[in-house]
Amino acid sequence: MDSALIIEKSVVIVAVFVFTMIMAMYSTWAERKVAAYLQDRIGPNRAGWGGLLQPLADGLKLFAKEEFEPNTPNRILFFTGPAIAMSTALITSAVIPWGDKLELFGRTVILQATDIDVSILYVFGIVSIGVYGIMIGGWASNNKFSLMGAVRAASQMVSYEVAMGLSIIALLMMTGTLSLKEIAQQQSGLHWNVFYQPLSFLIFLICAFAETNRTPFDLAECESELIGGYHTEYSSMKMGFYLFAEYANMFISATIISVLFFGGYNYPGMSWVIEHWGNNAGNLLGMLALFVKLCFFIFFFMWVRWTIPRFRYDQLMHLGWKILIPLGIINIVITGIVLLRSEIFAFLGF
């Protein structure tokens, strides 16, 4: 492999990693500000201007906290749980197309860490591994509340992954590819998939709330029933990894929603900008467009958290198995009929 290509990919990977960390870190600050605005409060305003240094203060606090370890026979698993949760949250961003390409130093830099043909399957595979971090941590904590939270999280994620997968199948039938980059390229201008697959988008969005354990589907860690859920026995940075992984997952979910249904880095007039202002200017604006879209969905996650009350667990399962999964199957059938309408009409003699 070309050494320049290795350096190029290394820079892109580090940039994606740093960007993911910064977005997850400042999502904690944004969460408090959004909650404060909705509740007519000020929010963080002591550490830095407007509280902008509050995430750094929180990280320092977590590092300085005492390391507490329960009386557990599974000490290795107790440490492994948060490590798995954090790792899976970060490596999902490797296949996300953050833009098209830039011309730098005589080279064409692809704004994606890696482009694989089955990137959607990669995302689903990594997300499904993340539940092991929660399950292992809850079981190794030697605490019944932690175990109950872990079991809730596992059953919730498994249940909603089915509906999420069905919503994606209808989208794949229309796009004909499993590559996130190709799906983004097909949505140039305003040919966004949300206009062609609104039901898929709605199902995927609801399932994203459940997959990230966000309100109103935060049954795995609801304070009123389970104290802190699967991370009740965790302290210091081990607990910080679990909390940080939730915000990283929220950021990744918002980005994938933007790429799958809202054009990703595409925006109206992008071809005109590239033609008149150059490739770099057009694609930098594309990166900005993707950033605006994902920030909107991050705000939407937070807005819902502080607006809608928590579901009961039986309501959560009823919604997943008896409403979303049938809707996903119906959407697949409708999509198939629309795609094959000419063949169907010919078969019926019309």
Give the H and E element order.
HHHEEHHHHHHHHHHH
Radius of gyration: 22 Å
Low-confidence stretches: none
Number of H/I helices = 14
The mean pLDDT is: 86
Total beta strands: 2
Strand content: under 5%
Helix content: 55-70%
Distance between the termini: 57 Å
Domain module tally:
1
Care to describe what's here?
There is one protein chain. With 350 residues, the chain is mainly alpha-helical. It has one domain (3-43, 57-348). The chain is 69% helix and 2% strand. It has 14 helices and 2 strands, in the order αααββααααααααααα. The chain has helices spanning 3-38, 54-64, 75-91, 119-140, 144-175, 180-185, 193-196, 198-211, 223-226, 236-261, 270-277, 279-305, 313-339, 341-348, and strands spanning 101-104, 107-110. A two-stranded antiparallel sheet has the order 1-2. Strand 1 and strand 2 form a beta hairpin. Helix 10 (236-261) crosses helix 12. The longest helix is centred in the N-terminal third of the chain and has 36 residues, at 3-38.
